[in-house]
Amino acid sequence: MIKMKVVSIGEGALNAEDGLVILFGKEVSERLKEVSVIQEFEQIDQYDVKKGMQLTIDDQQYQVAYVGNLVASNLETVHHTVLDFNAVPDEPRSNAIYLEPQKFPVIHAGSQITIKE
Prior knowledge:
By secondary structure, this protein is mainly β. It is built from two helices and eight strands. Strand 4 (54-57) and strand 5 (60-67) form a beta hairpin. The chain is globular. The mean pLDDT is 96.
């Protein structure tokens, strides 16, 4: 299980039109903070996210449809991933977790994000 708490949200971070939520840890540069949701880990049992796992943002539930090959290492090293609420493309992003349903979430400072089997 991975459990995160949203610490802050950059001014340009939440754009439902692009369907992306960029997550970074608190150590990220000021420039990236402007377009990112800043989170801190509260619990980490493993960094390995797999297709079929459940991702919850507060009371909003999603299923992992695809996991890029860099997600685990990016979560572990720079506390980064992209939550993508679009259909999985022919060439998916290597740093993204694609989610279903394709409904953009409501996120605020203090939101809990959990990924588990």
